[in-house]
From TrEMBL:
Residue span(s) of domain Resolvase HTH: 328-358
MF GO annotations: DNA binding; DNA strand exchange activity
InterPro entries the UniProt entry points to: Resolvase_HTH_dom, Transpos_ISL3, Transposase_DDE, Transposase_Znf
Protein name from the UniProt record: Transposase
Pfam families, A to Z: DDE_Tnp_ISL3 (PF01610), HTH_7 (PF02796), Zn_ribbon_ISL3 (PF14690)
Length: 580
């Protein structure tokens, strides 16, 4: 037997451990060997460095057992070095150094000539991490993307790269469960509108069992062939799944999912409201006369309105909004009450000079503006010269001699309309018009989406606040809404209340409806009658499947859409098995 160099106390410390601060007998006080039970390994020595703890372990046996034939051998072939990472402790990495011996297998009938001893049950063959360390790695890998997992683990003191995390995830065997009886199935999108997959959940345990690469009947048929025990399938209204069940030839109970049925019903209500939105608008606005000002909702319409308003009215509106006039009136009012200049200035937060000026006026004079250039005198001349092909620069110099007082840039700005549309020239800016703050005293219209969510609350018999109640009352006055609202409410009751009524009666009551959407919905129910009735009869629902579809979406996005079907399947199936 070769002598283990680590046994020698005078042996030089490994070159990697430059920062070793202490070498102590941690082994004796902590009984480190107990952490490697139930194997034949003992921790021989421990080196505690600044960042890592190194444990040197060895086997207590002086023989090896061939893993291929079970023969015991004492004849040593050679020895080599294995470095194994364990879980970090007290903020330090833990590294195990193990020097396994290679033995000759002395069994003549064995297929192998040599075998290596293994460091007990804590480490799998060929692995560089202990079993518990690998478990932490796979847990991180299953719960987040491999990139995130490797960053987290590196921070924790388990250095590895993202591909190692992926490899560890792919190494886990997915347990086969043939004893499934009740399943829920739904589709999910790889890329919405482009390609879809299916998710299958065990309704008994609430675990994801499988992901299928598409939502076609063939793949679900194949899956059903492999799972003969399935006796109940909860599904949405997809015909592909129901056809697959019919083709399987087995007596499988189909349950149309309640969630989808009620959702389809409320979609039907939303579409009907959307189609007849004008009726709602008329119901809300009836009796309200629209005045010209009230028409001014959009800014562009408002400008037109401003132009149409009479001059006096425009002045009046401006008087009300002009802060200068308001301030003048304020000063005059305070002056009449006998306030001093200083007091007024302080109260109104304006300059004393302004107050003094206003005190001396009896009425507010118009603002002084800078003298205007008399463009109108030169307009016809400039236009005719420009149309003859003269440049604006030359025309400017000419009219300057004729007595034009303006300067060059304003001149070009003023006559820009002549060169409008030419390359390199700015187009005219729209003239800013003083806008009146839009006013609208009418009842605001509620968008379809909001209406449908309020109506949905009503259908589900939830508490409505005052405004919501008013909306429902307004809508109820419209005959088509009354019909579809009552239909939806009684449909909901059939599912939610034990004595909510019979589906057949409900269909008879509404099958001759004039509302196209409701009619289509009822036709769909009649075609899938058996499954819908089972939806009322059985307590199973696809709610949990929908939940897993949401989880699948987050996993997909967490991995930036790069994960393929197999990885997604592992993440979902193993994730729910290991963590629930
Ligand atoms: Zn052997």
């Amino acid at each position: 037997m070769l002598k283990d160099p680590n046994c020698n106390k005078n042996n030089t410390i490994d070159a990697h451990c430059h920062h070793i601060s202490a070498i102590n007998e941690a082994n004796s006080s902590l009984n480190l060997s107990s952490f490697y039970l139930p194997s034949d390994m003992v921790v021989e020595s421990a080196v505690i460095g600044n960042n890592k703890i190194e444990l040197y372990i060895k086997s207590v046996l002086d023989y090896g057992i061939c893993p291929y034939c079970g023969h015991i051998s004492e004849k040593i072939h050679s020895q080599y070095q294995r470095v194994i990472t364990d879980l970090p402790v007290l903020g330090k990495r833990v590294v195990i150094h193990f020097r396994p011996r290679k033995f000759f297998c002395q069994n003549d009938f064995c297929s192998k000539k040599t075998f290596a001893e293994q460091p007990g049950n804590e480490v799998f063959r060929y692995r560089r991490r202990t079993r518990r360390c690998e478990q932490v790695v796979t847990h991180h890998g299953l719960m987040s993307s491999s990139n995130d997992a490797s960053s987290l683990l590196n921070g924790m003191g388990i250095p590895l790269c993202n591909t190692t995390v992926l490899r560890d995830i792919h190494r886990i065997r997915i347990p086969e469960n043939k004893e499934i009886t009740n399943i829920g199935i739904d589709d999910w999108a790889f890329r919405k509108g482009i390609n879809y997959g299916s998710i299958i959940v065990n309704l008994g345990t609430g675990h994801v069992i499988d992901l299928l690469g598409d939502r076609e009947r063939d793949s679900f048929s194949k899956w059903l062939e492999c799972h003969q025990q399935v006796s109940l399938v909860s599904r949405d209204r997809s015909t592909e799944y129901s056809t697959a069940i019919a083709l399987s030839g087995k007596r499988i109970i189909e349950v149309a999912d309640r969630f989808h049925l009620i959702k389809n019903m409320s979609d039907c209500v939303t579409k009907t409201i959307s189609e007849n939105y004008s009726d709602y608008r008329n119901a809300v606005r009836s009796g309200n006369e629209i005045t010209p000002e009230e028409k001014c909702i959009q800014p562009d319409i408002q400008e037109i309105c401003n132009d149409k308003l009479s001059g006096d009215k425009k002045q009046e509106v401006n008087n009300n909004t002009d802060s200068r006039t308001i301030m003048f009136n304020e000063v005059k009012e305070l002056q009449d009450k006998g306030f001093s200049i200083g007091a007024i200035a302080k109260k109104l937060k304006i300059a004393r000079q302004t107050v003094r000026k206003y005190r001396n006026y009896t009425s507010l004079p118009p603002r002084k503006s800078s003298p205007r250039n008399e463009y109108f005198k030169f307009d016809s001349y400039v236009e005719s010269e420009y149309s003859n092909g003269k440049s604006l620069v030359n025309i400017f110099h000419e009219i300057k001699n004729l007595g034009f007082k303006g300067s060059k840039t304003p001149f070009h700005d003023h006559y820009r309309y002549l060169s409008k549309g030419r390359k390199g020239r700015r187009t005219d800016r729209p003239k800013s018009i003083k806008k009146i703050k839009p006013q609208d005293n009418r009842e605001p219209l509620i968008p379809v989406k909001t209406i449908s969510s309020i109506v949905d609350k009503g259908i589900r018999m939830k508490e409505l606040d005052e405004k919501e109640d008013i909306l429902i009352q307004t809508l109820i006055s419209i005959p088509w809404f009354k019909e579809i609202y009552n239909a939806a409410t009684s449909f909901y009751k059939i599912f939610k209340e034990p004595n909510g009524g019979q589906l057949a009666e409900w269909i008879n009551e509404y099958r001759d409806t004039e509302l196209a959407k409701l009619k289509t919905f009822i036709t769909g129910i009649i075609l899938d009658m058996k499954a819908v009735e089972n939806g009322i009869k059985y307590p199973f629902s696809n709610g949990i499947v929908e939940g897993f579809v949401n989880k699948l979406k987050t996993i997909k996005r967490m991995m930036y859409g790069k994960a393929k079907l197999m990885l997604l399947k592992r993440k979902l199936v193993l994730g729910t098995l290991l963590f629930n």
